[in-house]
Design goal:
Shape of chain A: globular
CATH architecture of chain B: 7 Propeller
Order of helices and strands of chain B: HEEEEEEEEEEEEEEEEEEEEEEEEEEEE
Mean pLDDT of chain B: 93
CATH class of chain B: Mainly Beta
Largest sheet of chain B: 4 strands, antiparallel
Shape of chain B: globular
CATH superfamily of the largest domain in chain A: Response regulator
Number of domains of chain B: 1
Order of helices and strands of chain A: EHEHEHEEHEHEHEEEHHHEEEEE
Low-confidence stretches of chain A: 1-13
Distance between the termini of chain B: 18 Å
Low-confidence stretches of chain B: 1-17
Oligomer: heterodimer
Radius of gyration of chain A: 21 Å
Largest interface: A-B, 24 and 29 residues
Strand order of the largest sheet of chain B: 3-2-1-28
CATH class of the largest domain in chain A: Alpha Beta
Structural class of chain B: mainly beta
Number of strands of chain B: 28
CATH topology of chain B: Methylamine Dehydrogenase, Chain H
Number of helices of chain A: 9
Largest sheet of chain A: 5 strands, parallel
Strand content of chain B: over 45%
Number of domains of chain A: 2
């Protein structure tokens, strides 16, 4: 655990308000993938929380507000709940990077009932639906927000006939389910689906395997890959039988954050992050940054460190977080999901930002992405 | 100004014949475009350092200062030749600056470093560096030179600097992502635009307290996308013309009643602006469409779009 407990004197004589924020990461075994090309940063997520803390501290020093980040990592196989209890004893504010089921178990702890927890790691739709928790906010967009964003691009480009290849990891299946929902929502056709089952090592044989594997799809407008663990998807590009765009987890992707986002002042956040951590900012980093900044913004505006006061402010009309996406980020009052535009990118540039022009909504176009109030079966709010 | 308002277009055209130039920085072309205010055409394009943004002239217009953000320098150019004479030390990533009425000191916002740097343009030395909030951007200085302002985008504050001691004496919260600041009414007021908050806040300078707040509403555009950025005052600070970013409109704000009187459609993602000599015409930089819209101030009509470089950002007038 790292403690940063520096006291900053404000310019004016204002009573000190101190906020401790716990950051809890629950490690899981990384799935074995075909390629070893992607190093996963050791501090993925945590680095974003640290940059958010830095931003809060800079602002806080002018107001007599101080912040600390209490960091805890639970190794594979250890009991996450005990560590969560320890953190909750120190602070009611936790940013969580944990598997879906661990998130709900932490939220259900008696010690967590008056806490403000942030899910910064799981896009699982059910957490925003029937499995929602009143004390669990989501600073990471749901899978449904991302698949809706990509589907809006399909609609705009008139790619109406889609096919999909899904991996078999839980994240892949969640993503595929969210994608099916999005295609239905926007009236597009999923004409065929296949499960990825090839056991070959694609670094040698992609050019032979993939054309055969994709031949049976016949013709279509675009292919979707549900490969959230990035196992096989990279080998599909430019190897399909039909010369059609590849989208989803690879190729044209809807993402929470990406190094190619530079508009709306994003270049500043990117360079600030890179200077501090010597690497590019990931979606997980951005979600953790968002959670820590959400708390910072609420403290700045309310001058309080009371969880009830902060929660009320975060869900009020007055709350808005500048998140370098061109529109204020706010929280949905029906399931605790943060609203935000979603970038649709390829690895070298941004292609579009959803909501796309023309996708209207009676109150907020951002609610054309993900579970809208009438759709969500969340009853805890 | 009153005379112009009452005597119609003929006089207006005549008045704008007092020739001048509008200098526009092109953020993604590393150039400045020079527009003739009489012919409304680009007459010169000069190369600059990387990512030019803020631009301002010395009092006698013999020097033009340009924030070359990605070159980490403020460049000093001879406006007669377009030649870069030398760089001033500026701290990292200078985005926007303001020249003190003494014509000597530049107050520079260092966006990446949460610092305001004060540079003496004669000795070419850094006089002071002042810790401010995250991502400082908007810069202003009071007409009497006693107060400088830095706004910080992520900290959401206006920082009030005593220019004698180069120290902060007040920090005032504003709505999300403050972008630009200007003193008005002989320095008795200080205005700040908040891009994401979608508001203009008017402060009483003497007490640093909020005096008024102005909201915007553009028909057919969601409130989230109405994002006030740059703004300038007409003669006698009667009206403020406010760039509303991605809503592609300029708002005309009555600066006595603090009410919006009109919205003028301009190019895409309108950012900053500059008036011509007699303030009869306003030139707005439109980042996404890569052009400059010329507005007739009296009739509040857009007259023309002038193609410039990629992502025009700052604008400054030179007689």
């Amino acid at each position: 655990m790292v403690l940063l407990s520096t006291c900053f004197a404000g310019q004016q004589a204002i009573a000190e308000t101190a906020l401790k924020i716990g950051y809890l990461r629950v490690d899981v075994a990384a799935p074995a993938t075909l390629s070893n090309l992607d190093p996963i940063p050791e501090n993925n997520g945590l680095a974003g929380a640290q940059t958010g803390l830095q931003d809060n501290l800079t602002t806080g020093k002018f107001l007599g507000h101080s912040y600390e980040l209490l960091e805890a990592v639970v190794p594979i196989g250890d009991d996450a709940l005990n560590v969560a209890k320890d953190l909750l004893a120190a602070s009611p504010y936790l940013v969580l990077d944990a598997p879906t089921d661990v998130l709900t178990r932490i939220a259900d702890l008696p010690e967590a009932q008056n806490a403000l927890l942030f899910n910064s790691s799981s896009g699982e739709v059910s957490l925003r639906d029937q499995e929602c928790r009143r004390n669990l906010l989501h600073s990471l967009p749901s899978d449904a927000m991302r698949t809706d964003a990509l589907t809006q691009v399909f609609v705009q480009k008139r790619w109406r006939d889609l096919v999909m290849i899904s991996g078999s990891f839980p994240q892949d299946l969640s993503y595929a389910a969210a994608m099916r929902r999005s295609l239905k929502k926007f009236g597009l056709k999923l004409s065929d689906e296949k499960a990825w089952n090839a056991n070959a090592d694609m670094r040698r044989t992609a050019s032979q395997e993939i054309p055969l594997f994709t031949q049976s799809f016949g013709d279509y407008d675009a292919m979707i890959l549900a490969d959230e663990v990035h196992d096989f998807g990279r080998y599909v590009l430019y190897n399909t039988w039909q010369a059609r765009p590849v989208t989803g987890s690879e190729g044209l992707s809807a993402v929470t954050w990406s190094p190619v986002i530079e508009q709306w002042g994003a270049a500043q956040l990117q360079s600030r992050f890179e200077k501090q951590h010597s690497r590019e900012m990931t979606s997980l980093d951005y979600a953790a940054w968002t959670a820590v900044r959400t708390l910072g913004e609420a403290v700045t505006r309310t001058n309080s460190n009371d969880p009830k006061v902060l929660r009320d402010y975060i869900f009020s009309d007055a709350f808005e977080l500048a998140g370098f996406k061109g529109r204020p980020l706010t929280y949905r009052g029906w399931n605790g999901q943060i609203r935000q535009p979603i970038a649709v990118v390829h690895p070298r540039a941004m292609v579009a930002q959803a909501p796309l022009e023309g996708f209207l909504h009676q109150t907020n176009e951002l609610d054309s992405l993900g579970l809208d109030r009438p759709e969500s079966k969340c009853e805890a709010y | 100004m009153k005379l112009l308002l009452s005597s119609g277009l003929a006089l207006l055209m005549a008045s704008s014949l007092s020739a001048g130039q509008i200098w526009v920085t092109n953020e993604k072309d590393d150039t400045v475009s020079v527009i003739d205010t009489e012919t409304l055409e680009v007459v010169k394009t000069y190369e600059t350092g990387e990512r030019p943004r803020g631009i301002t002239f010395s009092k006698d217009f013999s020097r033009v200062y340009i924030c070359a953000s990605d070159s980490d320098a403020v460049q000093v150019m001879d406006p007669n030749t377009g030649k870069i004479l030398y760089d001033l030390p500026s701290g990292e990533d200078p985005e926007q600056f303001v020249l003190h009425p003494d014509d000597i000191h530049l107050y520079i916002a260092n966006e990446d470093d949460a610092i305001t740097t004060v540079v003496n343009t004669q000795t070419r030395k850094v006089v002071a560096q002042i810790d401010v909030g995250v991502e400082p951007e908007g810069m202003a200085v009071s007409p009497d030179g006693k107060i400088a302002i830095t706004t910080s985008e992520t900290t959401n504050m206006a920082h009030w600097i005593n220019t004698e001691t180069q120290e902060l004496f007040a920090n005032t919260l504003v709505d999300s992502r403050p972008r630009h600041a200007e003193f008005a009414k002989e320095g008795s007021q200080m205005w700040v635009s908040s891009e994401i908050g979608g508001t203009l806040t008017v402060f009483d300078t003497a007490t640093q307290t909020e005096q008024a707040k102005i909201d915007f509403e553009v028909q057919g555009v969601h409130a989230d996308r109405v994002q006030p950025v740059g703004f300038e005052f007409t003669e006698n600070d009667e009206f403020a013309f406010v760039a509303l970013g991605p809503s592609n409109h300029i708002a005309v704000v009555n600066a006595q009643a603090y009410e919006v009187e009109e919205y003028i459609l301009v190019g895409r993602r309108v950012w900053h602006m500059a008036f011509n000599a007699d303030k009869s015409q306003l030139f707005t930089t439109n980042g996404v469409s890569g052009d400059v819209t010329v507005i007739d101030v009296a009739s509040r009509k857009a007259l023309k779009s002038i193609k410039v470089g990629r992502f025009p950002w700052g604008a400054a007038f030179r007689p």
